[in-house]
Amino acid sequence: MPKAKGKSRRHKYSYNLNRKRLYRSARRRAAPRIACSHIRHAWDPHKSVAQNLAEMGLAEDPNKAVPIPKKLGMEVESDGQQPGKKIVRKPYVVNEMELEASLPEKKSNTLSRDLIDYVRYMIQNHGENYKEMARDEKNYYQDTPKQIKRKINVYKNFYPEEYKNFIASLKPEKMEVQ
Questions:
Q1: What distances in angstroms separate CA 48 from CA 44, 45, 77, 176, one per listed residue?
Q2: Do residues 97 and 36 make contact, with C-beta atoms less than 8 angstroms apart?
Q3: Domain boundary assignment for the chain
Q4: Where does the record place the region Disordered (predicted)?
Q5: pLDDT 10s digits, 75-125
Q6: What's the rounded Cα separation, in Å, for the pair 109 and 60?
Q7: Could you give the CA distance from residue 85 to residue 54 in angstroms, rounded to a whole number?
Q8: Per-residue pLDDT tens over the stretch 18-68
């Protein structure tokens, strides 16, 4: 295996570089990057991670928070009180997080306008004849009949109301042709 270029040459020592400062800054512990805004606002930078999370009622280590018994046959009995249990001083953080988690998720999935137009064109001109659709000149990507059927089904699932209205609008046109 050949050597990388520039590796064999002698490196010059930089006298102007303060290596002690570089080493010290790399060793310094960085503050944790917090994604949740509720935790970020309640965070106290003068306390440790464990202390901050304990005050909010959150667990630092999930394995310690909910211990799993070592033997499956044995049941663990507890009277509900744990020795040295910490007081939750910021319960609003957990309450806000639970409230945010309970909100219904918005459905943001949509199909591209090109795909919708393509599917509508195919249904309008060929009905449910997928082999004809595959031979159509507008089939630019040379989709097979199964691929076209799959695209139409995706359109049906994403926009069921729009699909029903579209099919209903096509039926009078077919009656006039006959």
A1: 8, 8, 32, 77
A2: yes
A3: 19-64+87-102, 113-170
A4: 1-21
A5: 555 545 555 566 888 889 989 989 988 988 877 778 999 999 999 999 999
A6: 35
A7: 10
A8: 777 665 555 555 556 777 888 888 999 899 888 998 898 888 888 888 887
Tell how far CA 9 is from the center of its chain.
Answer: 47
Instruction: Using the structure block, give the residue that is written with the tokens 């049941």.
Output: 75
Alpha helix stretches (DSSP H) within the chain: 19-27, 37-42, 49-56, 62-65, 91-102, 113-126, 130-135, 145-158, 160-177
Alpha carbon 157 to its chain's center: 22
- Nearest CA to 98 among 146, 42, 38? 38
- The token pair at 171 is 């039926």
Distance CA 162, CA 109 (A): 15
Residue 137 banded pLDDT, cuts 50, 70, 90: very high
The token duo for 30 is: 């960085």
The first and second tokens of residue 84, run together, are: 């040295």
Per-residue tokens: 4: 């990388």
**Around Cβ 54, how many Cβ atoms within 10 Å?**
19
| One-letter amino acid for residue 62 of the chain | P
d(CA 72, CA 144): 54
